[in-house]
Amino acid sequence: MELFIRQIINGLSTGSIYALIAVGYTMVYGIIKLINFAHGEVMMFGAYFAFLFAYSFNILELPFFVIILLSMSFAALMGIVIERLAYKKLRKAPRISALITAIGMSLFLQNLALLIWGSEKRKMEPLVSIEPVSIFGFEVSRLTLVTIGLSITFMIILRIFIHTTKPGKAMRAVSQDKEAALLMGINVNTIISLTFAIGSALGALGGIFYAMTYGQVYPTMGVMPGLKAFIAAVFGGIGNITGAMIGGYVIGIIENLTKAYTTGEWTDAIAFALLIIILLFKPTGLLGKNKKEKV
After folding, report:
1. Which residue, 7, 38, 32, 13, is CA-closest to 230?
2. Distance of CA 28 to the CA centre of its chain
3. pLDDT, tens digit, for every residue of 276-287?
């Protein structure tokens, strides 16, 4: 029983990371119906930004929260630039064109990181204490608690932003009907850029926690967590933010339970098998809705 509860706690930590990344996937899809396969690389760059602020610029001795906010800001700017350069002119193009462009952008960012930092894996020490804290008799790392706590806090802030603020309501309007939103005076271009900025910032936060949890940063680190976050978004119903959050936690818990009760080699296979099962029996995901589209 102790092993089970411990894996649930680890699953919540891993799931928080997947949920943060999955939200970026689902927000972009909800607004422009694009699966942004470059999102995993934005997550990777977010981790590198934190690495640079923490170690390469260590003369600044920046506090943990400042490093996080700076890295998220740079990732947000990066998301806006990617959207403007790669996706903006393809909004009315066939979806396959945008999809191929997203894959191309993913490879471009990976190779850009290789060119800048090389293929060497760099060690990243946790930026917060890993000393354990006793909770109901269980020793839990402070890093795990910070990962879960900050991830949930940022996701709550996102929900409040979307449901109570004017830009948030505009994002919901654009996701429902871009043409009608435009007629109502909403600047669609600004809202799409804002969506990419928020999604990229949250992805960067996920990347920072991922790098601290596994203790390293490298150019291809965004591939696997990016794919699992995509599975999480599909599981929850891509386009639905709450669904993406739930999907992230489900994938995280399944992954850790699989590692604990099997040889560990089945972890990724089970995650991808889950995606196939979902697509076979409920293609719209847990909270997704059937929507007829004109061909």
Report:
1. 38
2. 11
3. 887 788 778 777
pLDDT in tens, 234-258: 888 888 888 889 999 999 998 888 8
The position carrying tokens 């689902």 is 26
Q: Which two tokens stand for residue 148?
A: 């879960």
Q: Token digits for 295? A: 């061909």
Length of the chain: 295
Q: Is the pLDDT of residue 2 over 80?
A: no
Neighbour count for residue 185 (Cβ, 10 Å): 7
Of 1, 5, 73, the closest CA to residue 253 belongs to 5
Strand partners, 135: 138
Closest CA to 152 of 293, 249, 50, 31: 249
The domains of the chain, with CATH numbers, are: 1-281 (1.10.3470)
SS in 3 state form for the chain? Answer: CHHHHHHHHHHHHHHHHHHHHHHHHHHHHHHHCCCCCCHHHHHHHHHHHHHHHHHHCHHHCCCHHHHHHHHHHHHHHHHHHHHHHHHHHHCCCCHHHHHHHHHHHHHHHHHHHHHHHCCCCEECCCCCCCCEEEECCEEEEHHHHHHHHHHHHHHHHHHHHHHHCHHHHHHHHHHHCHHHHHHCCCCHHHHHHHHHHHHHHHHHHHHHHHHHHHCEECCCCCHHHHHHHHHHHHHHCCCCHHHHHHHHHHHHHHHHHHHHHCCCCCHHHHHHHHHHHHHHHCCCCCCCCCCCCCC
What residue type is assigned to position 251 of the chain?
Answer: I
pLDDT, averaged across the chain: 88
Characterize 189-211 residue by residue with b for buried, 16 or more Cβ atoms within 10 angstroms of its Cβ, and e for exposed: eebbbbbbbbbbbbbbbbbbbbb
